[in-house]
Amino acid sequence: MGPNMTGPMRQMRADRMGQMPMSPGIMKRRMGMMCTPAVLDAPCPIRGRAANLGLTDEQEQALGEIEKEARQKARAVLTPEQQANLGDVRDKPVMETCPMMTRMGGARPSTQPTK
């Protein structure tokens, strides 16, 4: 579900998600993720394929630093109100912070740098 998804499709997905046992906060985050374009050459997806790509520890660490810097820069352009609306942003990927996804086997150990 990317940014090009039509209104009816977005509503259908929202309705389906509404039937799942999750808090309104988690629902809001999930909807945001579904509307986020994913590019496979960004640091996060590259790190997600570390084993497949044969990345060295140094490469993974460098990608983690690039990602950390990009996140800091992205938050810096937001107003305080927008940052508050963004909510509590954790260093772990959302997949690791959602108990339902963990139970379903969708989470993998984090290679994300910590604060």
Describe the 3D structure.
This protein has helices at 7-18, 24-34, 43-48, 50-53, 57-76, 80-86, 94-97, 99-103. The protein has 115 residues and is an all-alpha fold. The protein folds into two domains: 1-37, no CATH class; 42-115, no CATH class.
Determine the N-to-C terminus distance: 30 Å
Strand content: under 5%
* Main β-sheet description: none
Task: Please tell me the overall pLDDT.
Answer: 76
Q: List the domain count as a whole number.
A: 2
Low-confidence stretches: 106-115
What's the total count of β strands?
Answer: 0
Rg over CA atoms: 16 Å
Structure classification = mainly alpha
Using the alpha-carbon principal axes, give the shape.
globular
Helix percent band: 55-70%
Listing every helix as H and every strand as E from the N terminus to the C terminus, the arrangement reads HHHHHHHH
Give the count of helical stretches: 8
Topology:
Layout: H1 7-18, H2 24-34, H3 43-48, H4 50-53, H5 57-76, H6 80-86, H7 94-97, H8 99-103
Q: What are its keywords?
A:
mainly alpha, 0% strand, 2 domains, 115 residues, globular, disordered C terminus, single chain
